[in-house]
Specification:
mainly alpha
Length: 327
């Protein structure tokens, strides 16, 4: 009937428009971002919101969270100018900085300029970067979220704003631990299990990006020798995740003028005992070129290689190529 057509096709004339929930309105704005709607259209949607302080039933999300999540500096400035509290938190105690850090899609291409502007706006409005969430993630600061979400521009924005970045996550990890565990570790894993050259190139670019971030953080003052609650250092995680370049960086041995740098990277931060155990022939050969003694006995009291030579470790695991190299 014509009345139903009128009801659905002319919503602005419908009395139900006034009763739409904040969650429904935020959903519409989110969909506008997804389809790359014109700026004018998106801003008109924010301007049409009657109650700018309204929150969604989805984790008590607010419009300032929505704008930050989509790295929209224009919307952020507008919302704050309307009197909305910049440091508003959702039900998980996440601020707009947490939303900016995570974004709408992990490991996607980030708009560094937009993220920088949003960070400047929020920090300038005195939103604390040292506020922890207490939701399902549990105890994360915004910059912990950024690393776990692969948001490198956010970390650079924090450094540029002189934010204290040595706070630990709930497991005692620094940002250096998290880089090896999350974006770099994930990229290395993906490289091992894909044969698509374009995908491999993409993941190698991610590795390079996060190596640069880690290097910048060390220069910023983060300790590459810090231990987490498991008594592991960033280097330990880099070795576990097979991130040789990061392992060398965390060991303090990355020097582009060093003629042995390629061998150090090939060794991947491993000891000769560990390389022999893993059957990592390239690492074994690199360590031998670096002067490691194939006949050295491990004297660690409770170590896994106690009283074994490197040759014995390789032989016990039937790594014949490594045995030949160690002879």
């Amino acid at each position: 009937p014509w009345c139903f057509y009128y009801y659905y096709h002319y919503p602005k004339q419908n009395h139900m428009e006034e009763t739409r929930t904040p969650m429904q309105i935020m959903y519409d704005i989110s969909k506008a971002y997804e389809r790359n709607a014109p700026r004018q259209e998106i801003m008109a949607m924010y301007e049409a919101v009657a109650d700018k302080d309204a929150i969604s039933s989805e984790r008590d999300k607010s419009y300032i969270h929505l704008a930050a999540e989509n790295a929209d500096p224009e919307a952020l400035e507008y919302i704050i100018a309307q009197g909305v509290k910049p440091g508003a938190k959702n039900s998980y105690q996440e601020t707009a900085l947490h939303y900016l850090a995570e974004g709408t899609n992990r490991y996607k291409t980030r708009d560094a300029e937009a993220i920088n502007k949003c960070a400047d706006i929020l920090l300038g409005a005195r939103v604390s970067a040292l506020m922890r969430d207490d939701g399902s993630a549990g105890g994360n600061l915004s910059y912990h979220v950024a690393v776990k979400s692969g948001n490198a521009p956010f970390i650079y924005a924090m450094m540029r704003n002189k934010v204290k970045l040595d706070m630990l996550d709930k497991e005692g990890k620094t940002l250096l631990h998290l880089i090896a565990t999350y974006p770099a570790g994930s990229a290395a894993h993906s490289i091992r299990y894909t044969k698509n050259e374009e995908e491999i190139a993409k993941y190698r670019a991610i590795l390079d990006e996060w190596f640069d971030v880690a290097k910048a953080l060390i220069e910023y003052g983060l300790d590459p020798d810090a231990k987490d609650q498991s008594r592991k250092s960033p280097k330990d995680y880099a070795i576990e995740k097979e991130l040789p370049k990061l392992a060398v960086l965390f060991a303090g041995e990355y020097d582009e003028s060093d003629t042995t740098l390629e061998d150090k990277i090939a060794a991947g931060g491993k000891t000769l005992h560990k390389a022999a155990e893993d059957g990592a022939l390239a690492a074994v050969e690199a360590l031998l070129r670096l002067g490691a003694d194939p006949n050295e006995v491990d004297t660690t009291e409770y170590g896994p290689y106690k009283e074994q030579t490197r040759l014995a470790v390789a032989a016990s695991r039937l790594h014949i190529d490594c045995v030949k190299a160690l002879l």
